[in-house]
Amino acid sequence: GFNDEFRAKIRDIQPRIMDWLDDPTITDIMLNSDGRLWLARENRPKAEFGTFIKSSQANLIIATFAAEAQTSPDADLALECELPGLLRLVAWLPPIVESPTFAIRKMAQQ
């Protein structure tokens, strides 16, 4: 699972994201450039959750995942990283997008 330091950092930025990462029914968490978060649950279509986050929060979330995966965005300001056995994150940063966006896909748990 996630280590305590990672959990604390994500909770400080946006507590709901850590709750969703812990929820076994949620398979994907996506952030649009308008700051709107979307969730996908097993065997259900994705749905807007009604939670918005600021660009600064999105940047911190992306940086926290990158640090945990010991990587950083490439020259094109895109980031792809994996926390082995837990999830995969793909993120894009300005100027290639209006504001930070990301998609988190949780790996199936055995």
Could you explain the architecture of this structure?
It is a single chain. With 110 residues, the protein is of the alpha+beta class. The protein is built from 3 helices and 6 strands. It has helices at 4-13, 15-22, 55-68; strands spanning 26-31, 36-41, 47-52, 78-83, 87-92, 101-106. Strands 3-2-1-6-5-4 form a 6-stranded antiparallel sheet, with helices on one face. A hairpin with a 5-residue loop joins β2 (36-41) and β3 (47-52). The longest helix is centred in the middle third of the chain and has 14 residues, at 55-68. The chain is globular, with a radius of gyration of 13 Å. The two termini are 12 Å apart. The mean pLDDT is 91.
What's this, in brief?
The protein is α+β, with helices and mostly antiparallel strands and 110 residues long.
Q: In DSSP terms, counting alpha (H) and pi (I) runs of 4 or more, how many helices?
A: 3
DSSP strand count: 6
What is Rg?
13 Å
Strand content: 25-35%
Helix content: 25-40%
Mean pLDDT: 91
- Sheet of most strands: 6 strands, antiparallel
User: Which stretches are low in confidence, meaning pLDDT under 50 for 5 or more residues running?
Assistant: none
Terminal-residue CA separation: 12 Å
Specify the structural class: alpha+beta
Query: What is the molecular shape?
Result: globular
**Elements, N to C (H/E):** HHEEEHEEE
Order of strands across the widest beta sheet?
A: 3-2-1-6-5-4
